[in-house]
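Narrative of accomplishments. A recurring question from our advisory board has been how the design workflow behaves on a single, concrete structure rather than in aggregate. To address it, we present the structure tokens for one chain from the evaluation set, followed by the sequence designed for it. No filtering or post-editing was applied between the two.
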């Protein structure tokens, strides 16, 4: 009898607890009705790829310096130079470090006037920073296309060029912590700068201006005409995706910078019903470019993949509506339930033409 009573009480408590959780969740989700949604597990996993200095988040894998050299020469050297000396636009990666720096963990040339330029390996303190940046942002024209193993390989090759690791070396998640102990500027991090106060905490409590405030902020510097096109057209050197392609330095400066607000003002009612207008209106250009892969596939790639498929419009309509991942890589396409059905059909049919 006692066991039955205990069982009933336990069930009642569990149900009460579940009810509390459900009510709390409902309240939390209804706090801002109609605004936003919870991220799916796939979306979180696709973007949660950062690697911390304690190597939390670092995926398992390995790569040899020999493989790293192959990847470097094929996908990195055009910007960063055959030996990491870089070209005229990008800062050199390798140089300025010595064997003594590897022993002390402080790069002596950082305080020397004889060093012509500070390289990446002179400044960076944590090897995890290099791994994280290479994996998330490189190559410049196709970020996030390097595999985990190739990222290890490229990083190992960079470290070998700086004589931090041997020429024939395999960098992996198993030995990267040991490599950290060899970083030339590993002891170079400091809190003695304007971002930190005397207590060792970041100074993030700014005081708002309350009197005699400036109504307009003016730019106090500009790029001289003789230097404007010194490195040729910068618009051609930016990544081929995103809302802006960079300034065209072959032309005079624009009178007003572009912006989303400007786009909204300039878009007429007629523009908003054309495929191109809908593409802008629903921010499709954030992930998709006409002929080059960005966060998502290029329009030309989508058209080629689904060419000749009778049910292509329905497939893509559903994909846009409910979202998904796996067809074009790990990064998921979020659902667009807020976009009208008619707009989705117009956009899908337009994309299938390859334009």
């Amino acid at each position: 009898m006692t066991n039955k009573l205990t069982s009933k009480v336990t069930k009642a408590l569990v149900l009460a607890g579940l009810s509390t959780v459900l009510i709390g969740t409902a309240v939390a989700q209804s706090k801002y009705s109609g605004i936003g949604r919870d991220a799916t597990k796939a979306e979180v996993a696709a973007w949660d790829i950062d690697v911390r200095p304690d190597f939390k988040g670092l995926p398992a894998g390995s790569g040899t310096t020999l493989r790293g050299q192959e990847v470097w020469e094929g996908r990195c050297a055009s910007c960063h130079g055959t030996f990491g000396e870089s070209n005229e636009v990008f800062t050199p990666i390798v140089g300025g470090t010595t064997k003594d720096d590897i022993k002390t963990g402080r790069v002596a040339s950082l305080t020397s006037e004889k060093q012509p330029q500070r390289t990446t390996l002179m400044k960076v303190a944590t090897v995890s920073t290099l791994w994280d940046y290479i994996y998330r942002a490189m190559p410049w024209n196709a970020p996030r296309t390097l595999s985990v193993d190739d990222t290890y390989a490229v990083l190992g090759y960079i470290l070998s060029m700086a004589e931090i690791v041997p020429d024939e070396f395999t960098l992996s998640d198993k030995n990267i912590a040991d490599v950290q102990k060899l970083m030339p500027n590993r002891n170079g991090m400091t809190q003695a700068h304007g971002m930190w106060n005397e207590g060792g905490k970041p100074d993030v409590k700014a005081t708002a201006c309350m009197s005699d405030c400036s109504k307009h902020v003016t730019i106090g510097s500009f790029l001289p005409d003789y230097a404007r096109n010194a490195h040729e057209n910068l618009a051609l050197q930016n990544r081929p995706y995103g809302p802006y392609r960079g300034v065209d330095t072959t032309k005079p400066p624009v009178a007003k910078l572009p912006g989303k607000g400007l786009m909204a003002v300039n878009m007429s009612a007629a523009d908003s019903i054309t495929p191109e207008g809908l593409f802008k209106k629903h921010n499709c250009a954030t992930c998709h470019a006409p002929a080059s892969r960005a966060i998502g596939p290029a329009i030309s790639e989508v058209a080629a993949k689904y060419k000749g498929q009778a049910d292509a419009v329905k497939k893509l309509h559903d994909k846009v509506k409910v979202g998904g991942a796996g067809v074009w890589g790990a990064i998921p396409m979020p659902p667009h339930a807020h976009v009208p059905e008619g707009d989705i059909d117009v956009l899908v049919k337009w994309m299938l033409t390859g334009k």
